[in-house]
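RECORD TYPE: inverse folding
INPUT: structure tokens
STRUCTURE:
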């Protein structure tokens, strides 16, 4: 197996981390380190009609597939480009009608199997790492993850048996584990979910909680840009997880999902933990250690409930925003849950505590869905400054919050605040996405047209 390689980068053995990517030349902040087209990808069903199924362009007036009437395309060229993958899903959707409901992971794996059937050479997505080299960590997967994999395998057979030749069950188990551990979520400028994909060369990068690079998406291409200066010989690090939380929470998430313990400077020094977990200092009686421990436990439990809901319930979307609704509860009930949780946690935590910020973010999402623009603005204003402190420089989480706030201000005729917030978003996006990215141009146009 001979890899083509990427200019400015090389694959190497990273001490204590296994395979990794290091720089062979200097990169300045904002430089494109490398780009990687998706090996395989799927658009989430919730965004059909708003994005092209093939190139992920966001535009109005897309044309739909005449057969399934579910997939939408920019033009005939995009439809033809997608047909080798879409034809399998198109036939299955027509056959099952409203009962067609495989998970996004199942859809992605089906496309990988279809692609592997015809490929003999490495693709432009595999210049440093092939998909077949993905780690599966099968020996570390617990019973719950094993059961989820078996459920996905059963769904794959159910929905695609007439349209796909399957490898052995053992190979399927490994493939699903590989995708779950190495797959990526494609997101827009506000971090709304657009789809799922595999980018082998990007997956080769190791994790750091203080990354020197960031991954963003231009259609179905992943772009890796420097967010710190990188010198020749330095390893290039991405972040696998949301970096808002404390060292303990990040460690737990990385061990559960990626099966390693991070030893980056942020994790060894824990330099931001005091600010992230700050409690009220001027209470009439300081909370005892056990009270704080119980409140942290409560906060983690409610965060996990939201996370689980995100996996199992539909995401309801408006033009720019999404919110997860528990079961059949109306949004007003969910907002009440958020507010009650904030009141309870606020008896010990300050507003800039990351658990408070998480719940404010959920409340803001509900307000957006309910079109309670003033309520959403109130929460956004409380969130954005602490985000700027807790997250690393050029964080998309910070940029997306400025975008949400800026668009809210503009809608509420608060132009001065709106322009200021949108410009702060652009300052981050210029580095994270690159100055020529369509998302940057769209935000710039929003400023100019108001």
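DESIGNED SEQUENCE:
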């Amino acid at each position: 197996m001979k890899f083509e390689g990427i200019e400015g980068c090389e694959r190497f053995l990273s001490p204590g981390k296994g395979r990794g990517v290091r720089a062979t030349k200097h990169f300045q902040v904002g430089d494109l380190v490398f780009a990687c087209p998706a090996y395989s990808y799927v658009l989430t069903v919730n965004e059909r009609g708003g994005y092209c199924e093939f190139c992920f362009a966001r535009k109005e007036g897309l044309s739909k597939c005449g057969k399934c009437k579910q997939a939408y395309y920019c033009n005939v060229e995009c439809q033809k480009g997608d047909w080798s993958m879409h034809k399998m899903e198109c036939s299955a959707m027509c056959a099952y009608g409203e009962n067609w409901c495989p998970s996004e992971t199942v859809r992605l794996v089906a496309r990988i199997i279809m692609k592997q059937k015809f490929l003999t050479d490495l693709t432009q997505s595999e210049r440093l790492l092939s998909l077949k080299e993905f780690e599966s960590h099968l020996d570390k997967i617990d019973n719950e993850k094993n059961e989820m994999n078996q459920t996905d395998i059963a769904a794959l057979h159910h929905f695609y048996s007439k349209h796909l030749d399957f490898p052995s069950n053992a190979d399927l188990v490994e493939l699903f584990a590989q995708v779950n551990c190495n797959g990526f979520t494609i997101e827009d400028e506000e971090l709304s979910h657009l789809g799922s994909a595999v980018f082998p060369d990007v997956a080769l990068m190791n994790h750091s909680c203080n990354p020197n690079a960031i991954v963003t998406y231009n259609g179905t291409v992943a772009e890796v840009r420097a967010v710190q200066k990188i010198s020749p010989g330095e390893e290039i690090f991405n972040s696998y997880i949301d970096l808002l939380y404390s060292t303990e929470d990040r460690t737990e998430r990385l061990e559960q999902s990626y099966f390693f313990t991070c030893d980056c400077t942020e994790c060894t020094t824990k330099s931001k933990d005091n600010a992230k977990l700050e409690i009220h200092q001027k209470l009439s009686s300081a909370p005892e250690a056990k009270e704080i421990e119980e409140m942290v436990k409560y906060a983690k439990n409610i965060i996990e409930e939201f996370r689980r809901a995100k996996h199992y319930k539909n995401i309801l979307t408006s033009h720019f925003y999404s919110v997860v609704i528990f079961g059949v509860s109306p949004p007003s009930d969910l907002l009440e849950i958020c507010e009650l949780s904030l009141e309870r946690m606020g008896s010990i935590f300050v507003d800039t505590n990351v658990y408070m910020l998480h719940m404010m973010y959920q409340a803001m999402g509900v307000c957006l869905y309910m079109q309670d623009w003033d309520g959403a603005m109130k929460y956004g204003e409380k969130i954005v400054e602490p985000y700027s402190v807790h997250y690393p420089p050029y964080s998309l989480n910070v940029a997306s919050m400025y975008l949400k706030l800026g668009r809210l201000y503009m809608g509420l005729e608060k132009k001065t605040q709106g322009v200021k917030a949108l410009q702060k978003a652009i300052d981050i996006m210029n580095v994270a996405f690159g100055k020529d990215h369509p998302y940057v141009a769209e935000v710039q146009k929003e400023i100019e047209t108001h």
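NOTES: The two ends are 55 Å apart (CA to CA).
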